[in-house]
Amino acid sequence: MASSTSHLTPIDDSIRTSDLFNTPDADVVIRSSDNVDFYLHKKNLECATGGFPPAETPSNLKDVVHLTETANILEMLFSCIYPRPFPSLEELDFDTFMLLVEAAEKYQFFGMICACRLHMKEILYPTDPDFSTNFTLKLDLHAKRIRLLHFAIRHDVRDLIEELRVILVNVPLSDMAEILPPHIYMPWPLSGTETTRET
Questions:
Q1: What is the CB neighbour count within 10 angstroms for residue 20?
Q2: 31 phi and psi angles, rounded to 5 deg
Q3: Per-residue DSSP letters for 72-120?
């Protein structure tokens, strides 16, 4: 399955349904922000997530659960609650990947969280030899690492914070001051060009 392509069937001018998630015995309907309905099994969601959907969600197809994510993001999320191959994260652009990561954390889709954490390693440590000589690629990689640091701080992903602490050790602390909360800023190491910490 191409991870960036949603499989949709028209219902009317405003609401569509996903071809991949349209089982006739579904007991919950989830609608994306771009009006795509996903017909799912509540038990699968409960087993694969940290309490999503909420227990009070009715098992009634007339009561649609509205989410703020688009269909392509939800389609990738829901792929991990059924016995089917995970989408290929390598095919995603970084912005789409970050939307998926945020959604996985928000709804606690544990399988997708693990897959995303593994893909983060590939982003943090690119194997393309051009990264060592191409200045534009280096800037892009640095920007991605900073965004991943924002994500790690926001969701308190301690191992990712520690990993980025080592990777970003040569970034001046003055550049990190606006990013790091106090409990992370104080133990953050000085870069090689700094001798004192601003207080």
A1: 16
A2: -110, 130
A3: HHHHHHHTTSSSSPPP-GGGS-HHHHHHHHHHHHHHTBHHHHHHHHHHH
Predicted confidence pLDDT, tens digits, the chain (199 residues): 333 444 444 445 589 999 899 999 998 999 999 999 999 999 999 899 987 776 566 566 678 899 999 999 999 999 999 988 888 999 999 999 999 999 999 999 999 999 999 999 999 998 877 776 788 888 899 999 999 999 999 999 999 999 999 999 888 888 888 888 888 877 776 554 554 555 4
Amino acid at 169: V
Contact 164, 138 (CB under 8 A): no
Q: Is 2 helix (H, G, I), strand (E, B) or coil?
A: coil
The token pair that represents 137 in the structure block: 């690629």
- Which amino acid, 30? I
What is the pTM assigned to this prediction? 0.81
Which residues neighbour 56 within 8 Å (Cβ) at sequence distance 6 or greater?
none
The DSSP secondary-structure symbol of 129 reads G
